[in-house]
Amino acid sequence: MRFTAEQRLEDDDVFEREFTLGEIPGILWTPESASASAPAPLILLGHPGGLHKMYPRLVARARHCAAQGFAAATIELPGSGERPRFAAVEQARADLRQALRAGEPVNDEIVDRLILPLVENAVPEWRGVLDVLLSLPEIGGPVGYAGGVISIGIRLAVVEPRIAAAVLFAGSFVPRAMFDEARQVTIALLVLLQWDDEGNDRQSALDLFDAFGSKEKTLHANMGGHTGVPQFEGDDGDRFFARHLK
Fold this sequence. Notes:
- It contains seven helices and nine strands.
- It is α/β, with parallel strands linked by helices.
- Strand 6, helix 4 (150-159) and strand 7 (163-169) form a beta-alpha-beta unit.
- The protein is globular, with a radius of gyration of 18 Å.
- The two termini are 27 Å apart.
């Protein structure tokens, strides 16, 4: 890992460091209180891609984490931002947009072509970045995962034993194969669902929540569209992670 920029955020005791690991760009935020003698638990911040475009939301979430004593980190997704594109995924995205414009149902074949390559490529990258982040003296476990493409969160929850809890956003298309993986998830979950999300199937989101194998799983459903998640859900997420990461 190579740190490429560092700054202290104004009006906050938060240090922000941009980094690259191979071709993967990312950002690490740590509270001033984090040290080798008192390492901060880590929360991985997922997002749908486009690190620079998502930065205002991500830094707001990172400040929230730091105020609770957590470090936070994010990376650019494969095929997003300035990273090389996947031709097959780009075609699937175009087919998805065409189906939505035409008012047609989005079939499973399009969803598989769009989501599964992203999961297969993103999850090993997240795990590699996690290896390096946890080697830093000021960062410790356990680890949480929050937001992002829900299928990536599902796969990480199954294969990454260092992740103890996750806040997942039921706001993206989910391949049928991921329902089988959801049954293998055992970590504590808080799932956020926007009831009127215009781009996603509410019943599919409810079925996915039912499929999760976790003994502790909570669903928060709020009225409103895709981007209308209430701010108070951030406070609930803080309490959720405080229970499981501290």
